[in-house]
């Protein structure tokens, strides 16, 4: 019965569907009062660790980037996020859904992701107000860690 329960959780937990795994260190960037608290909690539950804040200075396994249209340049934000993870690791870009304050056009996300060296794998609804776009850096890129 527990195997069935585990499979049910995988289907329902947005964090698990997005690829977060136990013991990952996940750094959160762009936190503000409008973020989806349920998603944050689901990521912490899936990883078993608290989200690291923007001041965290060690290597991370994944980055959660909350980004709104008025947050500045998306390409710059993605380049910065790419420096925090190893090649092939996850950067989850979270943007407001259509019609919400701060909405970012999908074409802008695609252009910024390509320019920053990411491959966009999928976008999915991750809450009432947010869309999550999974981005990964190509494993072939040689990158220096900070």
Summarize the structure.
This protein has 146 residues and is α/β, with parallel strands linked by helices. 31% of the residues lie in helices and 21% in strands. It is built from five helices and five strands.
Strand order of the largest sheet: 1-2-3-5-4
- Tally of alpha and pi helices: 5
Average of pLDDT: 88
User: Based on the structure, what is the oligomeric state of the protein chains?
Assistant: single chain
Give the percentage of residues in beta strands.
Answer: 15-25%
Helicity, in percent? 25-40%
Distance between the termini: 45 Å
User: Can you count the beta strands?
Assistant: 5
| Biggest sheet character | 5 strands, mixed
* Poorly predicted runs: 1-10, 140-146
**What is the SS-derived class?**
alpha/beta
Label the overall shape.
globular
- Our Rg estimate from Cα atoms comes to 15 Å
What are its keywords?
disordered C terminus, 146 residues, alpha/beta, disordered N terminus, 5 helices, single chain, 5-stranded mixed β-sheet, 31% helix
């Amino acid at each position: 019965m527990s195997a069935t329960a585990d499979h049910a959780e995988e289907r329902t937990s947005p964090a698990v569907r997005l690829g977060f795994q136990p013991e990952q260190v996940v750094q959160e960037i762009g936190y503000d009062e409008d973020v989806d608290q349920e998603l944050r909690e689901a990521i912490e539950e899936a990883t078993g660790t608290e989200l690291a804040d923007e001041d965290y200075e060690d290597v991370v396994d994944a980055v959660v980037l909350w980004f709104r249209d008025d947050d500045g340049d998306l390409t710059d934000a993605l380049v910065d996020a790419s420096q925090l993870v190893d090649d092939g690791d996850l950067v989850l870009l979270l943007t407001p859904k259509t019609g919400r304050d701060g909405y970012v056009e999908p074409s802008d996300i695609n252009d910024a992701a390509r320019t920053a060296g990411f491959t966009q794998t999928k976008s999915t609804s991750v809450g009432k107000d947010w869309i999550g776009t999974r981005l990964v850096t190509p494993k072939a890129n040689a990158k220096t860690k900070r």
